[in-house]
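so my prof wants the structure for this chain in the tokens format not the other one, which i didnt know existed until like an hour ago. anyway here's the sequence
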Amino acid sequence: MLFGRSRNGGFLLLEALLSITIGIIIICGALGVFAWCIRLFSLTLERIEEKEQALSALYTVFHLARYGDNAVVSEGGRRFSVRLRSATLSVYALRGSLLLAHKGTANPIAEGCTGVAFSFLQHSLTARISFGNEVYTLQVLPGYFKR
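here's what i got, hopefully its the right format
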């Protein structure tokens, strides 16, 4: 009996196959939603890390500008140098990293930096730092800046 009722109260072959098919469709749908959530979580985590890198870079540049002396923008706006006590520190981008150089050694401030532009006009420092498609601008105004 393929389409009728079973005499002993069990499931027929067609009912079992149909319920298995529906169960597989539901499980595949749940797994698809789970995979989408994992991908969304990963993308969100990457954006958060990018924002943290940018914030760290802006924070470092701000403090160098705020507490350093004899600020100089050179190399067409690609390098910012400042004296901090007796040391000269420089900030510049190279191969996807924003670097802080001191005595010939450069240490990364932020990874993923795609570009940097510094300008120094009327005692006001402006730094534009790019991370991917995002451009972050920092402006240190004359009241906060020692020259």
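also thought this was worth mentioning. Residues 13-67 form the longest helix (55 residues).
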